[in-house]
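FAQ: What does a ligand-bound record look like?

Like this one, built around fe (ii) ion:
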Amino acid sequence: MSNTAEEKNQQITATEPDIVSLVQITDCHIFAEAENCLQGVNTRHSFEAVSKAVIENSGHPDLLLATGDLSQDGSTESYDYLAQKIDAMGVVTFWLPGNHDDSETLQERFIGQKIHSAKHVLIADWQIVLLDSTIRGEVHGRVSETQLDFLHDCLRAHPEKHALVCLHHQALDTGSLWIDQKGLHDSDQLRENIARHDNIRGVLWGHVHQETRQSIGGIEWMSTPSSCVQFKPDSKEFAIGNEAPGYRHLNLYADGRITTRVHRVDSF
Ligand SMILES: [Fe+2]
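The answer part, i.e. the structure of the complex:
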């Protein structure tokens, strides 16, 4: 099947043409069974608290991005549940897979009125490119040549638009040895490819279950807390953090600026 940027893109209208309001929810780790918990957290309950907080704190964003590990077990039940809950939020949603997802089941079952599978989104003065960094059966990730070609095709097709690039695995190390070893192998190659374009303003990911943000070379590099369990920052070995579940809100401006903040569900 052909895989060109033009065939896969989707045009969305922003509520305000000068500001695109965007929410990222990531690493929901939903189980087939409603009562199951990850590290003591019921991931359905925490997701519902986070989705409620999105509507309360961030109004009605133009877009929602779900950036992988949507399911813990790749089950049809987990995607059916999440699709129903996300559709109920009433926000146009795009997604990409994480290492815990079953890509085929995700594609088949994570469907709804508001849920789209396009990987190149055009909105106002911006484009969002969603890359698949997963390798079947592996925890770590890699951005394949096919995905890099897709990125270049998208950006070359719309050089006039600012770009936000999204993927599941971390494009920059977090400083936690254990999770960085399970991060994006060949991340240098991704960064070299990103540097070849002068319209990329932000790179956004999940996987590390913690908030990070760095401005390097005119690009905002950002990771976002999980909607369930957090990982302890700067820990050499696997350790759970005590931060609350959360999500990230971004405003993308017509001049290419990004403002962003993480919201936590303090009451959870
Ligand atoms: Fe995760």
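Follow-up question: can I read anything off the structure? Yes, for example: The domain at 5-264 is CATH 3.60.21.10 (Purple Acid Phosphatase; chain A, domain 2).
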